[in-house]
Amino acid sequence: MTDLDIGILYWLQDHVVCSFLTPLMKTVTTMGNGGIFWILMCLILMIPKSTRKIGMIAALSLAFVAIFNNLILKNIVARPRPFTYADIELLIAAPKGYSFPSGHAASSFATATAVFLGNKRVGAIALVLAALVAFSRMYFFVHFPSDVLVGSLEGILAAIVISKIVDYAMKKQDSTSGKL
After folding, report:
1. With 80 as the cut, is the pLDDT of residue 179 above it?
2. Are 127 and 108 in contact (CB under 8 A)?
3. Contacts of 159 (CB under 8 A, 6+ apart)
4. Against a cut of 0.85, is the pTM above it?
5. What is the pLDDT at residue 50?
6. I need a surface site. Which of 17, 62, 76, 112 has the fewest CB within 10 A?
7. Distances (CA, A) of 93 to 14, 31, 43, 167, 168
8. CA-to-CA distance for 84 and 167, rounded, in angstroms?
């Protein structure tokens, strides 16, 4: 834990958290719970043939960060959540598990980035939602800013790499089947 991390969280508590924003932030943070919103987005994108590739890349990116975060990174780093260091009343139920990196941020940015790579207009909206989900985790004092930053970057990188792998595999398949 750095002084900057905890200082940012206290600044948010003192200058941003308010009764007007809290209900909105609760809705936003819930969008990231269990990745349900992002999973639904992937499934919806996989239905029409025109967006199926975007949906598949988004789903693969989401699955990758969920597995990598929850089974590997969080257990290796084992960073306690910020509220364990502070005398603060949480406005949402205390999440279980470790803090680093933010799974909400990783899954949100993995899916949103995959969508953005395939469709800039819809992807831009998804990226705004991802940023709000990531921010909400700091708003509620359940993740440090560095958790959110690393989770966001992890999600973005996962989507870019998986998109390139899928593109390569599809080109290779087309070249072996005689299509151009």
Report:
1. no
2. no
3. 57, 58, 61, 109, 110, 111, 113, 114, 117
4. yes
5. 94
6. 76
7. 20, 15, 28, 41, 43
8. 44
